[in-house]
Amino acid sequence: MVLLGSTGSIGVNALEIAKLFGIKVEALIAGRNIDLLNKQIEIHMPKTVVVEREEDVVKVNHSNVLYGKAAILKVIEESQSELIINSLVGFLGLRPTLKAIECGKRVALANKESLVACGAFIDTSKISPIDSEHFALWYLLQERPITKMTITASGGAFRDWPIEKLSHATLADTQRHPNWSMGQKITIDSATMVNKMFELLEARWLFGEGEYDAIIETKSLMHAVVDFKDGSSTAHFANANMQLPIAFAIDRNMQESILKPVNLAKVGSLEFRKIDVERYPVWQIKDELLAHPKRGVVINAANEVAIERFIAGEIGFMDIHTTILKAFALFVNEPQSVAEVFELDEEVRAFARVCL
Amino acid sequence: MVLLGSTGSIGVNALEIAKLFGIKVEALIAGRNIDLLNKQIEIHMPKTVVVEREEDVVKVNHSNVLYGKAAILKVIEESQSELIINSLVGFLGLRPTLKAIECGKRVALANKESLVACGAFIDTSKISPIDSEHFALWYLLQERPITKMTITASGGAFRDWPIEKLSHATLADTQRHPNWSMGQKITIDSATMVNKMFELLEARWLFGEGEYDAIIETKSLMHAVVDFKDGSSTAHFANANMQLPIAFAIDRNMQESILKPVNLAKVGSLEFRKIDVERYPVWQIKDELLAHPKRGVVINAANEVAIERFIAGEIGFMDIHTTILKAFALFVNEPQSVAEVFELDEEVRAFARVCL
Fold it and tell me: Which of A20, A232, A259, A274 to mutate to test the interface with B (most CBs of B within 10 A)?
């Protein structure tokens, strides 16, 4: 397999599963964490390695090291592997996804932005999502008619904050996820609920038209609920560990024991909350967005720029919402091709950089 | 169809579903609630009616009324219907189940005691259980390897009582079920947790060898949980209404909308509790019983007699547990035939009448 984003939390877990399944790692693509990359090279002995910056090439203990975005596409194109795991963060993960599908490969996809921005133009039959929520929905699907699919949210770092304090939240505050540790950007997306809106959009592309919603489950043990026409609902529980969705993304028929099951008697209680638009203002456009899912690229571009500006200290935490809502109100056209997705992405970014 | 126990809560709901599905009712078998029976006759126009007592025959507005246990078996044998719904209460429901299967009919079975006492000698491929818990397990089954099946209990009338008060509980106290209203006997069985032990035994016969357990879920919205080898668990939710399992027991492929789905955001929270052997002493023999499920007849006979004696004021509420535990300790042989089931049933009843 080819692993994009090997030193992130998904990448590290993917390598554990690769070891368990005895899967050969053809190429490792990483960012700037060269220490961890070197350890991974020692264990998995890839043929090719790609890093982000030219200056890091010499630090990598490997004879075949490339750098930069173009190298990623080249490695995908020239690889023998049938499986590409894409756990890059952000819009820059889209081109590798498109390239992999163009080359006839199967993509185990943790890069949410690929489907959010460009789902209309991606053959999702080639995609296995790496995400607890989509895995859970997939696990729950049956032949019976479905009326609604619901995914769960932790509620993020600010679920219990007084709402009036939110505009003063710092970057450090956003990183205090209640249930686990992930990368910086996705932890901010979790605090704004943008992450959950992205997952609903992905679900829309993966599972087709239908009713989608999300609720908060504070312990992050329940990941999805499917309502069937007869009145039954089924829910998926698992301990929060990405190895489970990764294992199934790699092998849909796998029958290994990956995690210990959730023990509900020990858990004792579960709490569910509605997603409140005062705390998560971006949630007010959820239905409109799901009705026009091609507009996902607008949300994503506005969100990425707003997060950069928030990290740079240019705007406050709640301004991330404002930026997204302004962009969504202004850019109402739907892209009709991949090229238009990239154009619109640029336009929205230019707007988002100056709109506040 | 032929409906045994038409005036009980299952029977009433079964007739609603029969109306919905346009199923003809060939025979109604009821007990002593002649008023309700007469209303049912008017709506469903059965060819034959059976009541419990000879003296009630004249009160029934029908030209073909029989009475007594032998008449039930005769009606089953002579019926044209392929489907028998058996919602009789207690061990007396067993002979009709056996007769129906002998006649090649399919049995939608709400009579728990049939499988509890005689599961080893019943072809369960002919049985569709009418029970939220077994329906839920059936709904959740998948091709994937399973490690454990768990059903839920409400905890019954005494789940929140101080344990030291339990020995003084009255019949009226036992009938205060926290979540719904059912017949007298099953409500007592719910308070002792005998009902849940019966359901585990039934599950064992319906779904085969494996690990079975139960937990308390106080709102009775979650009915079963299946643990899969990979580490996933799936749970079945539905509003507590027997029309859902009845509809599927009648037609396994039905696709009607029977109930409104559970809205977890409105539910707000769920609470799970371990089943405590101090509060439910009979639970201490759960594993032993599941390892030797043919001994179910002992538990059932002791329970039926103990409940009669409790209702008659001869013994206290906690003596129901004591009677069952004494009988289970004394009668260790496993019946090897249907005839031996009926013999052992008699022996245990004789013991249970005098053991305290």
Answer: A232
Query: How far is B34 from B39, CA to CA, in rounded Å?
Result: 9
Q: Which residues of A touch B136 (CB under 8 A)?
A: 232
| CA–CA distance, B340 with B323 (Å, rounded to integer) | 21
Q: Do B261 and A237 touch (CB under 8 A)?
A: no
Residues of A in contact with B234 (CB under 8 A): 139-140, 234-237
- Please classify residue B93 by burial: count the beta carbons closer than 10 Å to its beta carbon, then call 0-12 exposed, 13-18 middle and 19+ buried: buried
User: First CA to last CA across chain B, in angstroms?
Assistant: 43
Quick one: pLDDT at residue A179?
86
Place of tokens 């919905």: B20
| Residue in B233, B252, B275 to test binding to A, most A beta-carbons within 10 Å | B233
Provide the β-strand partners of residue A148: A227
> Which of B18, B54, B61 lies closest to B38 in space, CA to CA?
B61
Instruction: Give the amino acid at B314.
Output: E
Q: Three-state DSSP class for B257?
A: coil
Rounded distance between C-alpha atoms, residue A141 and residue B134, angstroms: 20
For B229, the closest of A148, A232, A257 (CB atoms) is A257
What residue type is B262 in one-letter code? V
Q: Which of B242, B264, B269, B276 to mutate to test the interface with A (most CBs of A within 10 A)?
A: B264
Taking only the tens place, the pLDDT of each residue in B268-319 is 999 999 999 999 999 999 999 999 999 999 999 999 999 999 999 999 999 9
For the structural domain made of B2-129, what CATH number should be given? 3.40.50.720
Contact at CB, B264 and A273, closer than 8 angstroms: no
Number of H helices, E strands in chain A: 15, 12
Strands of chain A (E only): list them.
2-4, 27-29, 48-51, 65-67, 83-86, 106-109, 127-129, 146-153, 212-217, 222-228, 233-237, 269-273
Contact B230 A148 (CB under 8 A): no
Assigned token pair, A140: 């729950």
> So where are chain B's domains?
2-129, 133-159+182-280
Smallest CA–CA distance, residue B2 to chain A, in Å, is 24
| Structure ipTM | 0.95
Give residues with Cβ within 8 angstroms of A108, minimum separation 6.
Answer: A14, A83, A84, A85, A86, A128, A129, A130, A246, A249, A250
Q: What is the pTM of this model?
A: 0.95
